[in-house]
Amino acid sequence: MGERYNAYKPVISRLTTWNNLNHSTNDSGISSNSSDFTYYSGSNTTKTPQMGKRHDIGRYVMKYQLNNPLTALSSSPDQTRVIVAGSSVLKILNVSDKEITEESNLNVRHGNRNSNITDVKWGNSFTKSKVATAATTGSISIWDVGNGQPKSEQKISAHERVVNRVCFNPMQGNYLLSASHDGAIRLWDLRDLNQTTANITFEGKCESVRDVQFNSGLTFGNEFAAAFENGTIQKWDLRKPNIYERRLNAHVGPVLAIDWNSDGKTIASGGRDKTIKIWDMGGAYSTKPKETIYSMSSVARVQWRPNNPSEVASCSLQGDNRIFVWNIKRPYIASFFFEEHVDVPTGFLWHESDILWSCSKDRFFIQQDIRDSHRQLDLLSKCAIGWNVYDQIAFAIEKSNDPHSEEQNKSIPSSSQSRFKPKPSVIEPRSEDHYQLQQKVGSISLPPFDPKSFSHLARNYISSGADIWTMCDHNAKVAWDVQRYRTAQTWKIVQLLYGKKASAEMDKTESNKDKGGSEESSLKDKDLSSATHSKSSSEAKDTDSLKDPDNDEDLYPTDPESESESESDEKPCPKHKRIQTPASITNTIVLPKFNRSSWDKEPMMTQLLDYYAEQGDVQMCVTLILVLGDKLKISEERAEQWFFSYIDLLHRFQLWCAATSVIKYCNNTAVGMLNQVFFLLVF
């Protein structure tokens, strides 16, 4: 007799921990530790500690321990008894609402201790009092368990190699299918007690058949499906034994388990490739699955949950002691899972829609309730927010159960809503195609960012290979082309402050003043003149002009409110009547005579970088650093942050050449390592 566990008990908390090391019992076999809330009895009450394993007991869990590891189980048609099988184990257990008791031990009664059973099935209809077991020796044993005195009724030498699975016909219980490692599927008529050969042999043209299941959704039960070692699934008809009706290349590697849905058209398969796939076997032929669920380990068993046609349960082949229940419309996370076993489950079945029976290598048969399961979805936040490269915000918010919540949202004053000019677009998921989310999702588009201008500037800016004057002049023209007039103005200022040609032109301007020459002729520049001719009159209308280089307010308005009042910081001021181009901007600057080499330009550049950083324009910050190099003093950490942000944007817009150029000419060690990392990933 094994140990009998009665877990019907009052509990205070959801889970109670059973400490195997400190567990003790009194003479009557009842636990002396009242905090366990578990009563058990039997001849052997000594527990073997499972080192490094947790052993929690839920409120609705009942356990029964056997002497050896278990490999399979099957329930009686009335769902009151279960037969468990394994290495030298074959027992019938009675499962009631309060306890699990042993009814009979078939191995002890018939001296069949040495058999290693791989699968067991309880019959139905005409064979409801019979049990079939499959063994590693290739034999099938038929047991009569109807009158309370189980006896071995028939033994068939069915296959040459191990029998992986047996299955009773759901409509005609006297028919039994067997699938073996020898690649054959055989049909047996159990009404003939003296048969030595199968009635029908189905050749799958493969080395090993891992699973076989009758289609229980059909009226006559003539169809069955088989899973093969080579990753295929075959659909057969008993009336056409010569060739299969359909063949699917289902998995990469062996298909270890299959199960028909109650609709009779859909089949679930699990394989060593760590996936569960859902196939339509009744409609038009398709080589692609309807849904694919990605597990963390190889899938050993799959079974649809009763009365829940969208949920399927699975257990692992090795390395995972949990039984997962998946919703096929939400395949990336399990709806809930059980983890009462401390070793890999080897078999399970649904006793009811909410109650699961399972057995494991840990020698336990366990009844588990869905109320004791771990619900991963309850631990996830239903609110989220994210950005994309086009300055759009995607959001998900939890639906409220309050029916008046939407009315409250509609009653919000319009003044509070006016702050958010972009109107969010809310998307309702279609329940027939997707998992019914308890969320509302949508997106908001923010207008300030222009991806086309960003990409144009990234492709055409130059930050190396020329002197500062030439680079600033070129970048000003590029910014002018995309109507970034304030940016073009900034490049002209940097050109005058740091460019070498600026000093020569200013000296020439002063000498021409002394000689009575005109200011316009003295400041003529060929490059800027050519840029002037390339601009249309419409572009020349929207320009800014510099009045006084000593007046910071004229160069850069520092008041953010004054800038936000206009739709764009690049639009011209209405009081400027003169049409100006990049060349005329320089021509209108009246510079006082001063020694620029002794002038501290660092505060101005710091203010300039702060301005663009507050605007979120890391492109301008990074390009200024690359152009000016050592002439610009800035914190290394701050510059590194700008570089990484700009490079990330370039990668998102797939501007690979521009990103590589930025990394190449950056003096920061951490940024320079990015090219080396990319090289290692590629080669």
From TrEMBL:
Entry GO terms, CC: cytosol; GATOR2 complex; vacuolar membrane
Chain positions of WD repeats: 156-198, 248-281
Renumbered residue ranges of the record's region Disordered: 401-432, 504-579
GO biological process, one term: positive regulation of macroautophagy
A single GO molecular function term of this UniProt record: zinc ion binding
Signal sequence bounds: none
Keyword Metal-binding: yes
Residue ranges, compositional bias (Acidic residues): 550-568
InterPro entries, A to Z: WD40/YVTN_repeat-like_dom_sf (IPR015943), WD40_PAC1 (IPR020472), WD40_repeat_CS (IPR019775), WD40_repeat_dom_sf (IPR036322), WD40_rpt (IPR001680), WDR24 (IPR037590)
Protein name (record): WD40 repeat-like protein
Species in which this protein is naturally found: Gigaspora margarita
Lineage of the species this protein comes from: Eukaryota, Fungi, Fungi incertae sedis, Mucoromycota, Glomeromycotina
